[in-house]
């Protein structure tokens, strides 16, 4: 049964279907227009997450029905252009929920003059088919005024403080967005953050734990990551940079002026900054500049079970886990003499007590730190690999290039921010309904 009134929080997660029932994606947010006149905000459309994890804007006029389990569109033809907020627009969940307001509702006189937290927005479709925000659900922040968890629904006309200016003020809550980010892959969470205004992005980044933030920063364009690190305190910046992979830190600081790059490196503990400094001695478009200095490295005396335990580490990427490099001590890069490698499939085929030294692939060639992007690409294609060793002229393993490192170098610098032109056809329309 279609409804004409609904709270935004109920929409999040609903399946979005075309008129024939074909799945398009899921609702992740609602885009509204905050009007200067104080009139109720207009609902412009939905932020819909496709199965590819990309978020697109679907105009509300394309919605033909909303029911408790799904949102149905008038057409299966939608624009695949990534969601981008225009001036005066806001994300209901991403920006409005958890903000602070005051109310003038005569039926809630005991709450007058108190800061209240927005927990939901009620939207309603009018006779003209337009959807407007007409109700606001709020919760008292001071427990003496209400029992913990009490929520009051107030007409829009009795709410003060939900303006574009107020949304840009510091100190707004972030619980709703953090809940939305929970469980997302770092790359998807990075996309969500990039869609938010800079001030909101900084608030959410400040609320994330350092390990989680480090994972997300590694998936953001360097300029966005740099801007977030720039507003961190010294201690937090040190911990976040220390939690990032050395090659990602090198990518980040390598684009900064020398003085700023040195400032960030000096924040890190020496043992964490040293691998980064070594990477920065190589040109970024060479194997030495692309590699990670921390691949899976073991000695010949390591057993198969021990090597597999290392590969099972959730912090190791699938590409890096595909191959184990065997060296003489020390096992920290630059290592002792490089002896060879053992592929993951070989480890899986052999008894747990077998020594990896008995399984070595010594015929596989290696990369040199000065090898070009083309050379690395040809190497991967020739040997059907997703990770390859980088060995210096003295025979020491100094790192490994994985396929994700190579793709980052091959793709345009702004590949995270732009969409390929090939995505625009597929019977899609231009998003001109806003």
Automatic annotation (TrEMBL):
Residues 415-434 are annotated as: Disordered. SUPFAM superfamilies: CBS-domain pair (SSF54631), MgtE N-terminal domain-like (SSF158791), PRC-barrel domain (SSF50346). The keyword Transferase does not apply. Residues 360-418 form the CBS domain. The keyword Phosphoprotein does not apply. GO terms for cellular component: membrane. Keywords: CBS domain. GO terms for molecular function: magnesium ion transmembrane transporter activity. This is CBS domain-containing protein.
